[in-house]
Design a protein that fits this description.
Length: about 425
């Protein structure tokens, strides 16, 4: 666990660095807020569509050749992406490099499969939460650093992020061990690795089925939050890279506190499915709160109260991982990444369109919250679908079959 946690931390710091500055960088090539929203959506779309096709293939390749070589490939693609983005002097360069980096990036999916390789089913929710804590810590460090560096030069965070990705490549090359033994590897088949087949395989896992739709809706809401946060706060409150960096810092702190510290207690109190439901409901209410916020400080209030919302991803990942066999973890996590990728295609398109409609409104107008109203609606549907699914007799029987004994209180990752 320490090896993969350090890998994920460095990966997320490098990604977090560019979040406050990518939208302003796109804006430096455009002449209006509406154009900025459109082209930022196009740049995000390029990464998402490439990742939709690439992530399931890379997940299946990790089932065949091991997790380590696929992670190394992802770090290489990430480093190239950051350096070329920093050097970009035209929009077409941004779009082209995001296509390449999206096709080579499946680090999160492969890291989840890595954890599943080394963890018994009853401990996976807690360990996925530790990965989530590293994501949170990356969002503590990355966006603040990106905001501060971006206030000096918009291109500087990309060079720093590229350097961190190279550091991760070296760490993986010389330190990170392989997690998947040769006897647990499965043959690679193109017909099973394409995104459509991977998603179909995910829906056929016992006890999962329709839950995939709820995961997709919740993922779309989360990714719309990510893709519109910087522009939304700029349009509504006049925030720049520094203010957005601190707000993302607050989100990262809360993710780290919940997933790194409170998750053990939450899992003792709630089953994974109950925790997922409560988290979906909490996040939906917070989306509504962000949409209606009239002052910048209100954004922080809902960042802090959304405690259960930060536990949703780990709970859902553990449910899916426990339903998959040992030789299918890469494909299962790759399929989840495929859902995330196709939602990452849709999120910036929908978000950019909604922001484009409201970009002419005066700062502070409640209608600028349109993307977050949409997220709240998505989250409500996801909560209802998940609630209905967890009440199904076939889910209850499959959950009982895969549940192991409770983790001992003194077991540490």
């Amino acid at each position: 666990m320490p090896f993969i946690l350090i890998t994920v931390l460095i990966d997320m710091v490098s990604i977090g660095l560019i979040i406050p500055v990518l939208a302003p960088l796109v804006g430096s090539f455009t002449g209006s807020q509406a154009d900025q929203a459109f082209w930022f959506g196009a740049v995000s779309f390029a990464f998402g569509i490439a990742n939709f096709f690439g992530a399931p293939v890379l997940g299946a390749l990790s089932d065949r050749y091991g997790r380590r070589p696929v992670l190394l490939l992802g770090f290489t693609g990430l480093a190239l992406s950051f350096f070329v983005t920093g050097l970009a002097n035209a929009l077409w360069m941004l779009i082209a490099v995001r296509l390449v980096s999206g096709a080579l990036q499946a680090n999160a999916a492969v890291a989840n499969a890595y954890v599943a390789d080394i963890t018994p089913p009853e401990d996976r929710a807690r360990r996925f939460a530790l990965l989530g804590a590293m994501f949170g810590l990356g969002f503590v460090l990355g966006p603040v650093m990106g905001g501060l560096l971006g206030s000096i030069d918009l291109h500087l965070p990309f060079y720093v992020a590229g350097s961190l990705a190279l550091l991760n490549l070296l760490y993986g090359l010389f330190v990170l061990p392989e997690s998947l033994p040769a006897d647990k590897r499965s043959p690679f088949e193109w017909r099973k690795a394409n995104p459509v087949s991977a998603l179909r395989g995910l829906t056929r896992l016992e006890g999962i089925g329709p839950l995939v739709i709820a995961i997709a809706f919740a993922t779309l809401a989360q990714l719309m939050l990510h893709s519109t946060w910087v522009l939304y706060t700029a349009f509504k409150f006049g925030w720049g890279p520094r203010e957005n960096g601190w707000s993302l810092f607050a989100i990262g702190v809360m993710m780290f506190i919940v997933q790194g510290g409170l998750m053990r207690a939450l899992l003792k109190r709630f089953a994974a499915e109950r925790l997922a439901l409560l988290g979906l409901l909490s996040a939906g209410l917070c989306y509504l709160g962000w949409a209606l916020a009239t002052e910048g400080w209100v954004m922080y209030v809902f960042i802090i109260v959304n405690v259960l919302g930060y536990a949703v991803t780990a709970a859902l990942q553990s449910i899916v991982s426990n339903a998959a066999s040992a030789d299918m973890q890469g494909r299962a996590m790759g399929a989840l990444a495929g859902i995330s990728s196709i939602m990452a295609v849709a999120a910036p398109v929908i978000g950019a369109a909604l922001l484009g409609f409201v970009s002419h409104l005066a700062p502070g107008d409640w209608r600028i919250g349109a993307p977050f109203f949409f997220c709240a609606a998505l989250q409500a549907i996801a909560t209802l679908l998940a609630w209905r699914h967890f009440r199904r007799p076939d889910f209850r029987s499959s959950a009982s079959a895969t549940a192991g004994p409770p983790a001992a209180a003194d077991v540490h990752p």
